[in-house]
């Protein structure tokens, strides 16, 4: 049975602030010796999002330079690990790494996750009923290595492999989940190989103040690769960063997610969450395709503190005719940042988002939306 939500707004705010303060205290006590080639950080975490309520756990990171410290052409590599459990009886363990090899001739990205995640389902499409989501449960393992090779200055070609195993799927008989039409109602796995092309002139990975990032990825999932479904996934991610006044930065992202073929539930586009249109429950709207545009105004306040105002719009869709002005989803809000790593500007962030559909959400997490 799903636990009852916390109704006391003051209690929510106190717990959020305690979690942020705990992280601040832990990181403030660390002496970041930039002369060291490898730095380690381990902290307890309290994070908040509409998808899981409150989450409690621990996070650790290793940051290092793969080349000589005077090599300004190579950014700092970071490997992060996190494990938490939530007030909605969910749990997640993940390793996420970005490794820059000397002179950035190669870049390796790796994601490994396991999650048990009771979730909500409203249906498929941009116009699902505006009512309480229906509970369903799944467990998932996810593996994603992605290697990039520099082919000329700032331009990279890459290859990736994606594996997803979804099991322990359960849902309410004859409910919305059961009666909706989509693939992936039973345990399944998808396995695919892909290619990528990216162009990256950002000066920092976590909080760039200048540069462009463009990446397009094409992945084919085939039964010959031990996949239960045949489908193709195409993702395009375009980001632009510009300093407009001293430490004031404008950041813009255009994101397009498209699938073709037998797209199962957990490969469908999922609007919302901490890294998309904040305010919408991630998965409140799902379909085979999605397009979003998000803009942020970021500014440094003092010391380790910064702030951000944001807004965006977009939608999921099955066909292009679903993209009409009458059902556009939009959100806006603001937040504060506290630098965990001052040199690399890796932040813990607290955001509040509100949407044109009267959705709202509070997010406390590590790293920027994009």
Report the radius of gyration as a whole number of Å. 20 Å
Low-confidence stretches: 1-34
- Helix proportion: under 10%
Look up the CATH topology. Porin
The succession of helices and strands, N to C, reads HEEEEEEEEHEEEEEEEEEEE
Kindly state the number of beta strands: 19
CATH architecture annotation: Beta Barrel
List keywords for this structure.
two-stranded antiparallel ribbon; 2 helices; mainly beta; Porin; 370 residues; 19 strands; disordered N terminus; 17-stranded antiparallel β-sheet
Short description:
With 370 residues, the protein is mainly beta.
What features would you describe in this structure?
- This protein is mainly beta and 370 residues long.
- It has a single domain (9-366), classed as Beta Barrel (Porin).
- The chain is 6% helix and 57% strand.
- The strands form 2 sheets. The protein has a 17-stranded antiparallel beta sheet that branches.
- A hairpin with a 2-residue loop joins strand 7 and strand 8 (155-171).
- It starts with 8 loop residues before the first helix and ends with a strand.
